[in-house]
Design brief:
With 244 residues, this protein is an alpha/beta fold. It has helices at 7-13, 41-54, 71-80, 85-109, 120-129, 134-140, 157-167, 186-207, 219-233; strands at residues 29-34, 59-63, 113-117, 149-154, 211-214. It has one domain: 3-Layer(aba) Sandwich (Rossmann fold). Strands 2-3-1-4-5 form a 5-stranded parallel beta sheet, sandwiched between helices. α5 crosses α8 and α7 packs across α8.
Length: 244
């Protein structure tokens, strides 16, 4: 007799959906960085942002989980440890939807180069690691514009975890994945949680057309590579300051 599986298991075993083709309904462009904690993504996007700002380009920067709309609800939920994987996911989706409607889409339509420190793929990786269905998540975020470039900064698990542990006096409860009951040791729970996230990022890399970046390479070399790729794939002249 064949062993029965739950609907959640069946959903998880289905192949990932292929990426939607980016529609050019706006003159702007969207550049995203992704990767596990400690992969170097935020540092590199900051350096790219400063380079573009110095050049006078029209840019807008946005980062994950930064909308004031749900900040207080998220903070209370974390303090009281009330967040289930689904409520956590929905709060992040509400945060993203607010930023998308008020910042990302208006500025793309206004002809800006939008830089995003983490995007919908952060939700996909973290929420799947918490047990949410990848297909449910894809449907939840179906309104999101497809990035022109998604840089995936990949660092080996031990390297990324060591970077975080060296700079954190104490890991936060949800940051460490303690809500999942993986381990009673916070550091060990964080490592296992990050490994799950890393594995899902690797699965998304071919289907979502990530540009793979070596998170262990020297900072200056990575930045040079990043600028070259942006220059090749995006017409930066359209975001340059107008000559008087």
């Amino acid at each position: 007799m064949a062993e029965s599986i739950s609907p959640e298991q069946a959903a998880a075993e289905r192949p990932l959906e292929k990426i939607r083709v980016a529609k050019r309904e706006y003159p702007g462009a969207l550049v995203v960085v992704e990767g596990i904690d400690g992969s170097g993504k935020s540092t590199q996007l900051y350096l790219l942002k400063r380079w573009l700002e110095i050049g006078g380009y029209r840019i807008h920067f946005t980062e994950w989980n930064s909308s004031p709309l749900v900040r207080s609800a998220t903070r209370r939920g974390k303090q009281r440890r009330l967040l289930t994987p689904v409520t956590f996911s929905l709060l992040h989706a509400a945060d993203f939807a607010d930023r998308c409607e008020r910042q990302i889409l208006p500025l793309l339509h206004g002809g800006y180069l939008v830089l995003a420190d983490r995007y919908i793929y952060t939700a996909f990786a973290r929420d799947v690691a918490r047990g949410c269905s990848p297909h449910w998540l894809r449907n939840l975020y179906r309104f999101a514009p497809i990035p022109d470039i998604t840089f995936y900064f990949r660092a080996p698990l031990d390297v990324a975890v060591d970077r975080i542990m060296a700079g954190r006096p104490k890991l936060k409860y949800y940051e460490a994945g303690m809500d999942l009951g993986i381990s009673l040791d916070r550091a060990e729970s964080f490592r296992i949680f990050q490994e799950r996230i890393l594995n899902y990022y690797d699965q998304m890399m071919p289907t979502d057309k990530f540009v793979l970046m070596d998170g262990t390479a020297p900072v200056n070399r990575l930045q040079k590579q990043m600028r070259e790729i942006v220059g090749e794939r995006i017409n930066l002249a359209q975001f340059a300051p107008k000559k008087s």
